[in-house]
Known about the structure:
GO terms for molecular function: oligopeptidase activity; serine-type endopeptidase activity. The chain is α+β, with helices and mostly antiparallel strands.
Amino acid sequence: MNSEATALSGSPAATAPTDPHLWLEEVEGERALAWVRERNAATAASVAATEAFAATEDEIRAVLDSDAKIPGVSRIGELFYNFWKDADHPQGLWRRTTLASYRTSDPEWETVLDIDALGADEGTSWVWHGAQVLRPDYRKALVSLSPGGSDADVTREFDLHTKAFVAPEDGGFFRPEAKGDLAWIDENTVYVFTDFGEGSLTPSGYPRIVKRWTRGTPLDSATTLYEGEADDMYIAAFRSHTPGFVRDFVARSLAFYSSELFVLGAGDQLTKIDVPRSAEVGVKREWLLIELRDDWTVGEETYVSGSLLAADFDAFLAGDRELTVLFAPDATTSLAGATWTRGHLVINVLDDVKNRLHVLTPPAGGTGPWPRSAFTGAPEIGTVEVSAVDSDDSDDVWLVATDYLTPTTLSITTVGDDGAQPALLKSMPTFFDADGLTIDQHFATSDDGTRIPYFVVRSADLTLDGRAPTLLYGYGGFEISLTPGYSGGMGRAWLARGGVYVVANIRGGGEYGPRWHQLALKENRHRAYEDFSSVAKDLVARGITSPAHLGVQGGSNGGLLTGNMLTQYPELFGAVVIQVPLLDMKRYSHLLAGASWMAEYGDPDVPEQWAYIQTFSPYHLFDAGREYPPVLFTTSTKDDRVHPGHARKLAAAMIEAGKDVTYYENIEGGHGGAANNSQAAHMQALAYRFLWERLV
């Protein structure tokens, strides 16, 4: 088999022999990389060669490297850990401090692991993927590191006392590079789900088998606990270490929005938690929480999609179906999150894309209503997020508040203490002058009459003559909500120069819960694009901007969105930015993790589904005879989630047709597009300068 065929993912039937750009799917093929280098050089000589670009890149880099950013922390035992990047540590430091020190303006940090030094010693550009620390001793950690930022990574055991890795020859756990993970059972045992060889991965490239692995034994001797079906998406296992409620679980993901959770009992017997596959399940202490994506009828009662239900865990496993409704959505609300503390549950509700917090208290004895109280001191405006400091030990929570113009703040408070007010711990610096700027929320009307909310950040005295350079951003997929947040880089590169910034909350997202998402799945995908185009038209109708001054930007699924704006609505935009995108929707399910997204888009190998998928496949919608606005494509060679071939192929087709195309492919970075702050600043500056030069 030749090298090109080896590099291409998928079955021979999936290979389209009429695709003249198939060779660009060979990620590191000599011919493909020569094409990438040529395009990168052209971009370096054009957009990236100006003084304005250098200034923008420096401004963004200063934000990313700022020592004054809020260092987010996680409590591990009595210490508080943080992962930090700055100019001196581009790959990052894992470090720790005490809460007393963290409360000061200049905490004293102890370095635990220096990723830059590790990479220099080992000759690998390591990218931090996180760590799991074993309770209750808090000495051993499982650290995940990616070479260059790919989703595939390695897991290595680390000693937090000696601040050194435990070598495999000394009995340390080590998982070779693959998509997967390790999870602690106890000091000498882990769950392992990874690439075990032929047949052990799903079509998406994720683990299909989970095993129990004992310290000091070969990986290939680990005991198999569960094997998923050949067409599943991901299999994993984990232990809940909550004192008094230690339980083991096996998680089976059949597809996005379809999963099963099993309790692992004596003799490795598996008991499935009997809820709809589309539901999300959480277990904490004696409680089972069920978040519904679809209506669920139990006996004579029907619980609506988007509801949050509670049940006694042991009683539910025994067959009891007494369920308490903790939240039920209405026309304007959805559940944004639920956070346990030691004795309470904080629910975060979006109401027309604005956060509202409530505190619920589980009833004593496990039955009866859950008393509800206000969350004292929560901001009324902007995005508010809550997370537990340590849900096993206390009722303390972190409170993060932000909006587009107000620097993010971090506070700490105690839930359930009616007199407690959040204590401000940290504030993000003011990275740009927001005086005179304002945030509006408007609603556009989509093609089918649906109201589509969107936020506009602009000068309060903006002249409504249609001439303002305007950047419209969106995503619209996978039930992900876009809520206001402070971005120093965007503020400096766009708002401070007089630009207008717009975020659209289109269907496919989660702003109004599962129903908002489901309204734009598969054959209804067109609704997301109609929603987005309706926002563009509404901006013009309001006089904020005009097509010549309106740009659009999106990445990943948002890159598919902007790819469709380019190919279906080119007359609405003056410039388009498409980042780490899906674009070839005929091939997507055969490239890297693409098979895992068929619940979102459909299966292009089924003729009836390809009939509608092709209507939103930008690679196939491109018409060489049509006029298009200037377009910037960016991607990453190391992206092992969304194949770089998507961006390469449409860019190549457009270049060959003589269109105005700018292309840049970062060699590192994974799906995030960048492996460090320098690369991130460069990628962001490319987008902002490309748009500014074409829209002003």
